[in-house]
Amino acid sequence: MLDLARHDDVFVLTMKSGENRFNAAFCNALDRALDEVQASSGPAALVTVGEGKFYSNGLDLDWMATAGAEASQACVGHVHRLLGRLLTFPVITVAAMNGHAFAAGAMWTLAHDFRVMRSDRGYFCLPEIDIQIPFTPPMAALIQARLSKFTAHEAMTTGKRYGADEALQRQIVHSVAPEQDVLRSARELAKANAAKSRSTLAAIKKTMFREVLTAIAAEKNSAA
């Protein structure tokens, strides 16, 4: 499902579940991997990457259809917490977008500090308008915190698919690279920032994204 390997100061988390959709097992595995990175000592940074043509295709709607309302609601809550956790993670994080990043998968990339996108294939897309699933308040807060007002509005209301060049132009991603160079570029960016103070970095992120964290906490309390 997931493979976590350390290369000097950089942890590489490879998501190996096909379309890497978020269900209960996948969320738990992500938490365990983040636990391992957070428990490490010394300089560190984190890169996440998928395999093949998918980075992540979002929530596992097929699993939710059979898991029941309570389990599905719990999974969405877990996704919220994961987004908040990564958004304020105490080391620099880089999404190596090897392929499609849709819906919650696209939001997962936005929770990283930086994004490197494959130049020849793959889209960044928030298709909720077309699949008729409104954004939760935490998800909307995250998107609006990470994208420009123009791009957030366009992406959320039209479900537009952004290829690499347009994603770079709209500042959705920080750089683009050919397929064979995406992971290398992400690792280089991560390594260059691995020595940052963990406590200071976490404090800065928590201040930067206070509104997102507030929305996550409010949603958790309303579901309790």
Fold and architecture overview:
By secondary structure, the chain is of the alpha/beta class. 51% of the residues lie in helices and 18% in strands. The protein contains eleven helices and ten strands. The strands form two sheets. Strands 1-2-3-5-7-10 form a six-stranded mixed β-sheet, sandwiched between helices. The protein has one domain (2-223): 2-enoyl-CoA Hydratase, Chain A, domain 1, CATH 3.90.226.10.
Brief digest:
The chain has one domain: 2-enoyl-CoA Hydratase, Chain A, domain 1 (Alpha-Beta Complex), CATH 3.90.226.
Number of domains: 1
CATH C-level class: Alpha Beta
Strand elements, count = 10
CATH topology: 2-enoyl-CoA Hydratase, Chain A, domain 1
What is the architecture at the second tier of CATH?
A: Alpha-Beta Complex
Looking at this structure, what is the CATH superfamily? 2-enoyl-CoA Hydratase, Chain A, domain 1
Tell me, briefly, the overall form: globular
Percent range of helical residues: 40-55%
- Give the count of helical stretches: 11
Widest sheet: strand ordering:
1-2-3-5-7-10
Q: Mind describing the biggest β-sheet?
A: 6 strands, mixed
Distance between the termini: 30 Å
Q: What class, by secondary structure content?
A: alpha/beta
Q: What's the average pLDDT?
A: 97
Low-confidence region ranges: none
List the helices and strands and how they pair.
Elements: E1 2-7, E2 10-15, H1 24-39, E3 45-49, E4 54-56, H2 61-67, H3 69-87, E5 92-97, E6 100-102, H4 104-110, E7 114-118, E8 124-125, H5 128-131, H6 137-146, H7 149-158, E9 161-162, H8 164-169, E10 175-177, H9 182-192, H10 198-208, H11 210-223
Parallel strand pairs: 2-3, 3-5, 4-6, 5-7, 6-8, 7-10
Antiparallel strand pairs: 1-2, 8-9
